[in-house]
Each structure stands twice: as structure tokens, then as C-alpha cells.
Amino acid sequence: MKRRNKKNNEDGSQNWGDYMEAKRFKLIQQFNEDSEKCNSKVNDLFKDIAVFVNGYTVPSAEELRSLMIKHGGCYHNYYKSGSTTHIIASNLPDSKLKLIENHKIVKPDWITDSIKANKVLNYTDYLLFSNQTNKQSSLKSLFQPNTDCKNVTSCIKDATQEGFLSDFYNNSRLHHISIMGTIFKDYINDIRNNKNHCLTGREELLKNSYNKLNNFPLFLMNEKKIIMHIDMDCFFVSVGLRNNSELRGQPVAVTHSTGNNVRNRNGAIVKSEIMAYRKKYENVNKTAVTTDGDKIKKHWSTNMNGMDSFAEIASCSYEARKAGIKNGMFVGQALKLCPELKFIPYDFEAYKEVSYTLYNTVLRYTLDIEAVSCDELYADCTELLSNVSMDPMEFASILRAEIKEKTGCPCSVGFGGNRLLARLATKKAKPNGQFYLKDDDVVELMFSLPVSELPGVGGSTHFKLKSMGIKTCGDLQNTSLSTLQEQLGKKLGETLHKNSFGKDDKPLTYTHVRKSVSADINYGIRFQNETERDNFLKQLAEEVSSRLTSVKMKGRSVTLKLMVRSKDAPEETAKYLGHGVCDQVSKGITLPSATSDSNIIYREVLKIMKNLNINCKDLRGIGIQLSRLESDIKEDNKLLKFLAGNKAKPNADRNNKPSSSKMLHEEVIETYEDLSLSQIDQSFLNALPDDIQKEIVSNIKRTKSLDLNTKECRTDEQNCNIERKDDKTTLRENIDVLNDNNVSDEMKTYISPSELRLLMKQWIETEESPESRDVSMVTQYLYHLILADHLEELLIIIKSFYRYIIRNRNTDNWREAYMKIINHTQLRIGEKYNSKLFIENLFDVS
């Protein structure tokens, strides 16, 4: 491996390498720690074997990790050259096969079968692909025409086939774009939190002639903000042309297709779909102005036939745009507009490389960056330009030249007093230019600017504005705010009115917070029965679960999104296995608590699917989204530290088996412990004979009393030694800690009321201020008591809590916590009983 030279260390390009190396090391260290802590280790069967799981497998990656822990192996979250011995995969796309042709790529069965045989089996019998044996096809054969497959389309996978999900996501441009956008937002978060990060580019600027005081640009003294917007020019095309320099200056497009050399489709199907598209968009045009995408689809319906390619163009060069070609257009239509159009394939690894170089270059100068996507970002340059005493246009020239030198790709840069003006400046700068929109020029520019250029103005909003006679920002300025809010809504009306004057109050967002995690498939969905549909739903739920786990999140809201074949659309689509003309359907549900469990997600979406009662043969797209996200990182729950009673007892106690009479007695207690007098129908009780009434009441009271005394005595005995400790630190060190990893949600819910009261007493005595997580736990516990109609226990706990606070921690923080619990409890009481619990207003918390 080559050592990084000094230049690389200075220009900051090592950031990503160091970041990933540290991340890999941390994950391996975490795996080793988990292996040492594992109490269920079986043997060292996989000693000296390190695996990397690529894509979807059965068993899952998490299950394979667990198996490697139990059997002495090593698991790598990322492929590590020289250390990873085997790649585990069920299938791989062509692009990856070319990169790892000489590696050991084996099926997951190799691990499970080796465990069953209690020996490491010969991996060559489990190779996914091999160019060394005659048992399987060589890698090179995968990239050659398959003469055995008479019908090429029959070789293409659909959603019912094994490995479809991984193949789809490995080749989906939209998936890669969305994932890369999220990656860079997280990357900015990590770099901003890295205290060792150096602004090497800024240091270089400070050393040159620009840092002289007399060169300080005076206009900066009166400038409130200088926001920079960077957008790479024709990103996919620019990256692809680095290896296809002979195509520079020609009309070029990036797509999966290589031209119009497609199968001869059924002409009737194509004609039928064209008619369906026409009908749909004619209906759309009656109520709204069509978007660019709508116009494209409406246009192709007039001039395409069964021999034209329906592959979509992801990006096209400026030469192609001059011929009328646009992003999202079908290849068949584009070739009719520009027969000399050239095509180049996707190169996702190259896109990622160039994107990281772009971000790392800007990170040399400032950390105040908002990541937008893989090829676009905002940066607040106010402090930077003031610090280095530089004009925005001078800095743009230096930055653009550096990006071009490192990536070989051009970019455009715009500056303005806010993000809106910076974005508009970039539009004026394109292609391959720079522009600074100063305050003095804003009025003139905005007055004649079409309203469609403003962010947030889509087809629907554009139609409403046009119906109001508003075409330009000048028209917007002359329309009263009240009129706009009446027609567009309060928030949108106010925003557009401000934007029309060039005003934008929205600040840059440096810290990325995820709002949802989803997985969507709109290709290859062809189910013949509900079993196939349900199997795919389960796989998609597992995919979403995996994504939630990877970002350490869980969600409370589950939404199922469907694309359903339109009534007039043909069953077969013009684009093989495409979605065709569809209606959008979505329905969501809110869970009682957040989850990332694939089984729970699958259960909920299956319920929604069955309730919608849609013919599975009409499904053309399926998506699962989880929102209302919460962190899944286990926090230190201080309240649970005091719950010592549920820990395992010493061996001496465990060896003493209870007698049969004791077991019977405990069963009786368990039967009655959740039953209270409030749960018994009073009219039913009164109708019983007196002796039976007395027996029931006595039995309940006796059981409750016995249960209360037994549990309180046991808990007091277990904590008597602890309470002798005076030092708080010593106390915590000697308490039997019961953390979240040892306690299930059910255990937390079914702690007895007497145990909770003692737990709360110790909590208040040792904590200066309550943690919100602990307050939430108590609130949830009381809610479960309400659901179970255990109002006696509820009142006792609340009154005990109040007494403990008065005696030990009569502070604002504890009083506020108490009132928060009371208010939430009263709300839940009102929901169930349409009344309130009689509790005195003990604290006056303002």
C-alpha cells in the first residue's frame, strides 16, 4: 500500500481515509469486545477467518455476525484488503464482480453448513462465482452475451425471485443518489465534531498577500451574510467524461440503455399504455399546470413506438440540452430529437469519489456547510472571507480551480445574502462560472424573475398563481399578503411573499437530523398470488429494519406506499417490468412505541395491505417508510440502577429449589396480584350470597397484603447494605445495576407497585435532578396502571412520590417532574373515563 504523500496530508483529502479507517477500527474493536463478553461461545471453528457480508443474505448479516462471535471468527462491517478472508454474498451486480474478481466470494450456506458439520468445509464448493473451476460459470462469462437464453427478458429478475432486492438497490440510480445525500449530511456532522480537523486551505490563504490589512474588502463591513452555493455541472456526465474524453463537446447522456436496440414489444400493449397516459394527463391538465416531467411524458406519447427504448436519461450534457433533451426523458424519445446522442453508463464508485473530493475541498476552508446532495452544497462564508480578507469572487476562482484540478469536473458557484439569492446566483453562473448577487442588484433581478424559479413552487402552486394572474415575482410583490395566504395557505403565502423580494429567513442547517427511513421498489413488482406479495413485504420490512439499525434509529409511524395499476392501463407495460400508468395509494399507522424490529414492521404493513384489499396482480410499486424517529442508542437509565430485586440471585440461592407447596402458594399470588376490588362489577358482587362475597373480598385483600409485604421485605433486605453507604459514588458502585440491555419492555411494565415506590424513593434520594428518560418511564408505568384499571395503586404511587419529594428534594426540577407526570396522567384518565382523578394541586409550578 502506498503511503500518503505530504501533499495529500496538507490538502485535507485524507479526511475521508482517516475517517473510514477510524470507523473500521472502531467496529472491529466493538466486535472483539462483544466476542469477549459472549457467554454462549461454542468453539473456535472459524478462527483466523474474517468475513464481510455484501448485500442481502439468508441468514441476515446480523445473524452471520452472531454466528462468527459464537464460533470464534471475525466479522468486518467493511471489506478490508489483506484482512478479510471471505466475502459472503447471495448475488452481486456486474459492477462489483469486476472489482472483486479474484476474491473468495462464497454463499452464506458455507458458514451454516460448516457449523452443522462442526468443521470448516471446502469453500470452493460454495463459491458464488468462480473462474477456477468447471462447476460454475466464470466471472467473464457474466459480461458476455448469454447464447442459451433465447428470450433476454426472461433472464431479468422480478420481485418474486431470490436476491431481487439487493440487485435492484445496487443498480438503482435514485437509491444511490438518495443514499449519497444522506451519507454526506452525516459526514458533515462527523467532521464538525472532530476537534482535530484543520482548516488547511484557510491557513494557506492567510499566508498569501490577501491577509494584509489594507487589502481588506470594505464592502464586507456592511454585509450581514455571505452565503455560497456550489453545484457541479451535469454531474453524472462530467464524471463519466473523465474516462471518455473523446466524447467532450458532443451530446452525451447517462443511462442504463445503450440505444434503441431493444426487444420488439407487443404493439398493442404500447398503444394501450400510450392511450392510458394521454387520458391521465388530460385529466391532470384540467386542474393543474403540468410539470416538466408531465410534459415529457405527454410528448413521448405522440411519437414513440414498440421498438423505442423506455430507459430513462439520468443526466445529459449541455450539448444534448440544446437539442431539446432533458433529464428524465426516455431514450427512445431523445434519439428522435438527437440521433447523434451518445450514451455512457453509470459509475457509482466514481460519483462517490468525486463527491467526497468536493466536500473535502470545501472543508479545507470552513465547517459551516449544509450538505444538499452528492453534487450540491451551501456554505456560510461570512466569517471565512472576513478572516482571510478576500472578495467572494476571488475566493470562488481559487475554489473552483482547486475542485477542477482534483476532480476533473467543472462546477458553478453563486454568492448572495441568503440561501435563496445564492441559489439564484448559481443559476446565472452556469455553466462552469461564478456570480455574486449583491444587494443592490436584487430588486431588479427579482422583479422580472418567473415565479416558477422560486423554491417550493411546483405544478399545483404554479397553477394557482397563474389563475390569480401571477407570473413573475413582481406580480407577487404587488399582491397583498392576506390574498396570498387566503389562496395558498398562511405559511406558503408568507414564504412566497418574502421570497419575491429576495428575502429568505431560513438558516443553513449544519446538523443533519433524520426525519424518516424508507425503502421503495417501483420496478419488477409482478405478483401472482398473496403468498408472493407477503414474502416480498417481509423482505422489504427486513430491508427497512436493517437501514434503521445501521443509523441507530427506530420509528413510531409506519406508512405503506403503493403504486397500483390504473384502471385503463394494460396489465403488461411498455417498459419491461416497469410500473406503467399507476395510481398512488398510501396509508399509515402509529405504533404504541418506536421500533426497528422487522417482524413488527412486517406485521403492521401486512395489516394495512389486507385492509386496503387491493388485487396483488395490480401492484406495481411498494414502499415502507418509518417516521417519527427516535434514537435507538441505549442511554444510561439512572432510575433503573436502583432496581436490584430483579437481578439473578447468588448460586447458593438458586440451588435451593422451592417446595411444591411454596410453588403453589406463588401461583396463587400471581393469580390475584393484578386483581383489585375496582375491577369487580359491584352489581355482580351484591347478587352473590353474603358468605361468598366475604370470601372473595377477603381473598383479594389477603393476597394483596401478602404480596405487598413479601415484595417489600425482599427488596428491603436486598438494599439494607446499600443504604448504610453515605458516599454517593460508593453507592452507585455497589448497587446491582440493571440496565436497558438486561430489562425487556415487559419487565419494566410489570414491576410491582411496591417495588416502584421503593425504587422512586432511592432515585429521589440520590439524584440532584431527574432525567427526562426516567420521568417518561414512570409516566408510562402509570399509563399501564390506568389501562389495567388499577387506580388504587396509581393513587398510592402518586402520593408516595409527592412525599418523597417534600422530604428529600423539594426543588424546582423535581416539582416540575412531578407536575409533568400528573398532567400526563390526568390526560390519560380523561381519555378513558371522561373525568379527572382527584389529586390536589400540591405544587404551583409556573
Explain what the structure shows:
Helices cover 48% and strands 11% of the residues. With 846 residues, the chain is of the alpha/beta class. The longest helix has 30 residues. The radius of gyration is 33 Å and the shape is globular. The two termini are 65 Å apart. One of its GO terms (biological process) is DNA repair. Its cofactor is Mg(2+). It is found in: Nucleus.
Q: Which secondary structure elements does this structure contain, and how are they paired or packed?
A:
Elements: H1 6-11, H2 14-37, E1 50-53, H3 61-70, E2 74-76, E3 86-88, H4 94-99, E4 105-106, H5 109-117, H6 164-171, H7 173-192, H8 200-207, E5 227-232, H9 235-241, E6 252-254, H10 267-287, H11 292-300, E7 315-316, H12 318-322, H13 331-337, E8 342-344, H14 348-362, E9 369-373, E10 376-380, H15 382-388, H16 392-407, E11 411-416, H17 419-429, E12 434-436, H18 439-448, H19 459-467, H20 473-477, H21 481-488, H22 490-500, E13 516-521, H23 530-550, E14 553-565, E15 582-595, H24 598-612, E16 619-631, H25 651-655, H26 660-672, H27 682-686, H28 690-719, H29 728-734, H30 745-749, H31 753-766, H32 772-787, H33 791-808, H34 812-833
Parallel strand pairs: 1-2, 1-3, 3-4, 6-8, 11-12
Antiparallel strand pairs: 5-10, 5-11, 6-7, 9-10, 13-16, 14-15, 14-16
Helix pairs in contact: 7-14, 14-16, 21-22, 23-24, 31-33, 32-34, 33-34
Binding site for Mg(2+): 231, 375-376
Keywords: DNA damage, DNA repair, DNA synthesis, DNA-binding, Magnesium, Metal-binding, Nucleotidyltransferase, Nucleus, Transferase
Domain UmuC: 227-458
